[in-house]
Amino acid sequence: MTTIQPALDGTIPDPPKTATRQRAEDYETWLEQVWPTYLDAAASGRTFTCFEIADANNLPEPPDSAHHWGRLMTLLKDEGYIRTAGWACTERPTANHSGVRTWKGTAAARRAAA
What we know:
The chain is about 40% helix and about 15% strand. It is built from four helices and three strands, in the order H-E-H-H-E-E-H. The protein is elongated and about 60 Å long. It starts with about 25 loop residues before the first helix and ends with a helix.
């Protein structure tokens, strides 16, 4: 059991908010939720990692996190919206700063946003 220390005025503070994100029920619904955010990132022209965009926009986790994030990036690349830009260390807390691919939007992504 967690003990909560009352404030000096006697009020009980709100419990701390955790960094957990919701998980989507199915792949298609999740893809519809996250696709526009990644198109915006591609249109920005900056280099990014998959996790940076998900974390900054508090995107939901897919049903199968180990595979669906990579599949999303492959779909965006196959559609011509992003290209590989290099490698970086991930900021994902559970990945121990592993190397991950970085991405950059293409001219097609910038045209689609216009």
